[in-house]
Amino acid sequence: MSIADPILTRRPESRVWKKFRAHKSAMLGGVLVAFFVLIALAAPILPVPDPAATDWGAVRKAPTAAHPFGTDEIGRDVLARMIWGAQASLLAGVVSVGIAVLLGVPLGIVAGYFGGWTDAVISRCTEALLAAPFLILAIALAAFLGPSLTNAMIAIGLSATPIFIRLTRGQVLSVKAEDYVTSARAIGLPTPKILTRYIFPNVLPPVLVQATLTIATAIIAEASLSFLGLGQQPPAPSWGSMLNTAKNFLNQAPWMAMWPGIAIFLVVLGFNLLGDGLRDALDPREH
Fold first, then answer.
1. Which of 11, 52, 116, 143 lies at a CB distance of 3.0 to 4.6 Å from 235, suitable for a disulfide?
2. pTM higher than 0.85 for the full model?
3. Collapsing DSSP states into helix, strand and coil, what is residue 82?
4. Residue 159: which of 184, 146, 141, 180 has the closest Cα?
5. Which residues share a beta bridge with 71?
6. Please, which residues have CB within 8 angstroms of residue 223's CB and are 6 or more apart in sequence?
């Protein structure tokens, strides 16, 4: 009967996780993001009033035990609208960045790996889109598609796609010059296998970091579109539309603007800290 060596059988702790865990600000960012995600997921079961229910006897009431965050201009509970609004903001951030990644990464891989006229066409189109400021492009696309949360997510995703095309293309140009990729081509491995086994795994870490940081930008963009009436439509709650309404009552009911402003600040801070921590943890020069 052999006895296993505990040193050999113990799984070593991932260097990435170890470095990320030592990054205090990244852990804080992870806690902030996890908190808002849990709030958004738990919204249907939390003991809060209907976010669309009005109470004309409690219009613009300051925070009380019955309404901890106060009420808005037609007596709706601000806390309930904050909780349900988290769903719209986080959904917009994740879905729009998902659209950008699904479109941008394949185009970037194709442009970087095959080069030639394919790279020229994709790169020129990308540069043309990057010439327009991100938020201006998102507003123009959202106005063209029509005001709704779905169209806002599509507009933000399309506006963010050039960022991922350029990032992925640069990473592929660097990776395809490595000896192991040259050897794979020399022994006759098919192109799809080279792309999936050698190119994509090495492109993924920087794309993951950029996606985390872009979610924060997308949340701000969704709030901006909702503020302008191009995102989530009333009476559905959204932090941006809440700010749009609150701007008319800053003197009479400052809590209407304070809470959604704080929420946007914290969730964007969380994603930025999380992205910075992932960038440091996944940097191969630090391993």
1. 52
2. yes
3. helix
4. 141
5. 77
6. 89, 231, 238, 239, 240, 243, 260, 264
Residue 188, exposed/middle/buried by CB under 10 A (0-12, 13-18, 19+)?
exposed
Tokens of 7: 């040193």
Sequence-ordered strand ranges (E) for the chain: none
Q: How far is CA 250 from CA 2, 51, 60, in A?
A: 75, 21, 11
Tens of each residue's pLDDT in the chain, 287 residues:
444 444 444 444 577 777 777 778 889 999 999 999 999 999 989 888 888 888 888 888 888 888 899 888 888 999 999 999 999 999 999 999 999 999 999 999 999 999 889 999 999 999 999 998 999 999 999 999 999 999 999 999 999 999 999 999 999 998 888 888 888 888 888 888 888 888 888 898 899 999 999 999 999 999 999 999 898 888 888 999 899 889 888 888 888 999 999 999 999 999 999 988 888 777 655 54
The one-letter code for the residue type at 55 is D
To which residue do tokens 């941006």 refer?
240
Neighbours of 65 (CB within 10 A): 5
Residue closest to 26 by CA, chosen among 210, 286, 276, 281: 276
CB atoms within 10 A of CB 281: 22
3-class DSSP state for residue 70? coil
Cα distance between residue 281 and residue 19, in whole Å: 5
Q: Read off the amino acid at residue 40.
A: A
Please tell me the distance from the alpha carbon of residue 268 to that of residue 150, in angstroms, as a whole number.
21
173-178 long-range contacts, CB within 8 A, separation 24+: 173/112, 175/199, 175/202, 175/203, 176/112, 176/113
| Token pair listed for 231 | 């995102």
